[in-house]
Amino acid sequence: MTDHPSSTGGGTRPGRFGSYGGRYVPEALVAALEQLDEARLKANIDPAFQGELERLHRTYTGRPSIITEVPKFAQHAGGARILLKREDLNHTGSHKLNNVLGQALLTKRMGKTRIIAETGAGQHGVASATAAALMGLECVVYMGTKDTQRQALNVARMRLLGAEVIPVSHGSATLKDAINEAMRDWVTNVETTHYVIGTVTGPHPFPEMVRDFQRIIGVEARAQVLDLVGRLPDVVCACVGGGSNAMGIFHRFIDDESVRLIGLEAGGEGVDTDKHAARFSTGLPGVLHGAFTYVLQDEDGQTLESHSVSAGLDYPSVGPEHSFLRDTGRAEYRPITDTQAMDAFALLCKTEGIIPAIESAHALAGALEIGREIGPEGVILVNLSGRGDKDVDTAARWFGVLEDGLHPDGLHPDGLEQQ
Amino acid sequence: MNGVGAVLAKTKSEGRAALVGYLPVGFPDVQGSIDAMVAMVQAGVDIVEVGVPYTDPLMDGPVIQHAADVALKGGTRLKDVFAAVRAVADAGAPALVMTYWNPVLRYGVDRFADDLAKAGGAGLITPDLIPDEGAEWIAAAERNDLDRVFLVAPSSTPERLRSTTLACRGFVYAASTMGVTGARTTVGDAAEVLVTRTRLMTDTPICVGLGVSTGAQAGQVAAFADGVIVGSALVRCLTDAASREDGLAAIRKLSAELAAGVRAGR
């Protein structure tokens, strides 16, 4: 590989990005983390593994994903050129499969037969259920009950694919609690089970490994933009929940100093309210789910509940490499409110005929804002990390596009009101 | 010297295992939890694990999760933990604080160690801090003469058993089974195998936790361990109680049963 990722991510010791990352886990999991680290480092340099993953990307996921220029959308961004990296066109509808296929292959290499996963929006759960079906693995997905309600269609999808979906009702009943429950399962069943973490957080080696499986996004996109525009983009935008799609598209650009990397967090109802997931606006470094990174927390170190219209960004912590990129200034992070995201969502639908995931709509809203700042000569690459089929119900309610009493998927007539 | 060493030396000289009891601060409320800890000591618990309620207790089963939820919703703060430590110490038992790492980190590792020592605490048990990440805490503990109890598990390699036990002071916490806290009907062979493997690496006392709920089980574990740790079963005494008095009575009764168990084990 010509541009093999660094194994330390710029940190001073393995598993650290500057001071962030590490391995804050029960001792019972350390042996499994060591086993995983060994397996993935071997796989990184094993042509047979890389060949199999490449074949799956090409024949199953549908890679490389295309880039699409969106000029009518861009008219609302001060005329800057906006290019979308179309991860929404991947099989299962998001970037999540890139990582899951890699981890599922590793699961088989480690001789394990069962995978577990957490999911917020359901995209990672669907990708995990899909890979499990493809590779003959047992699959259990943990999902907060608040999310099973707002993403009911994805619950059905996972069950159709043969996965067991376990709703988690304690705590805030969202992604963070689903991760807690998955960790409890893992510590109990670690001998047979691999925990497929869906984002660039968790204990080492997850942040590095998931990034490495996702960096294909940026590798492809960089070449595609050079090919189309003849130069590098000025800005790369991506939404940041845990941050896997953002690390995936950012990583190949880190050494391109002229390229600004901008992550868009969920600003919810505003960072001056207590309903948001803007970790870099009000969070502080701390430990959650095995990593030292920015966390929304109170003065006793208790995790605060996050909020976002998008389930996939509704998480009080963020991948440790983002914390490192933020502190070093290599990447910038901004909050996007629910309203800004939904406006960008609607705009892309109407101007370009593309329904984005509400998560990705945060990146689109960021592009609108940044485009106006950098002017018409600018080129912005946006990671369109997922498609919006799963969000039609939420969006239909938000915009009131259906007559009273009609519900788009018929699965949860009370929908958002149940939250 | 602070810490649990003296108590474990005494129980050893009596030819028995020590009884270590866990309760979280703030359940059912702060005063209720302190009363229960003191009752536990009066009824025969040798060492108290003072639990810090935390929003994301990923090593805990439903009983302790519920207790932590109640404690946090009731407004329990870290300062209440130091009050509980003081009360336990005054009752005559060493108090080891059992805490997930982020509350300590947020409070400040040095400041936490200082305040714990000032409150008369014996040290910390850290379920999600392995010694590999614990340099700052180990230094702060050294400075304050505090115990640091790290966990070993059935999945620990010989190398990790060696490095982890080397970092422990007070005792080594042997997690008897792979899994989270909660009462189990049987304590499997894994516990004894783990204790045997761990003894090859260290002279530090080894206490066994996860799953013990009855006097009979305590007796079985006491046959091969230096201490028996009971958590969820004690918490359940409070969960199931119809009144505060009933809860304290249940705590006293179970503590006495367990105390008899650790004496019958050898």
* Content-based structural category of chain A: alpha/beta
**Sequence of strands across the biggest β-sheet of chain A:** 3-4-14-9-10-13
Under CATH, the topology of chain B can be stated as TIM Barrel
What gap, in angstroms, lies between the N and C termini of chain A? Answer: 48 Å
- Roughly what fraction of the amino acids of chain B lie in strands? 5-15%
Computed over alpha carbons, the radius of gyration of chain B is 17 Å
Q: In CATH's first tier, which class of the largest domain in chain A applies?
A: Alpha Beta
Q: Which overall shape of chain B is indicated by the principal axes computed on the Cα atoms?
A: globular
**Quaternary state, please?**
heterodimer
- Total discrete domains of chain B: 1
Q: What is the name of the CATH class of chain B?
A: Alpha Beta
DSSP strand count of chain A: 14
Helix/strand/pairing class of chain B, anyone?
A: alpha/beta
**Largest interface, C-beta within 8 A:** A-B, 38 and 39 residues
Question: How many structural domains does the protein architecture of chain A include?
Answer: 2
* SSE sequence of chain A, one letter per element: EEHHEHEHEHEHHEHEHHEHEHEEHEHHEH
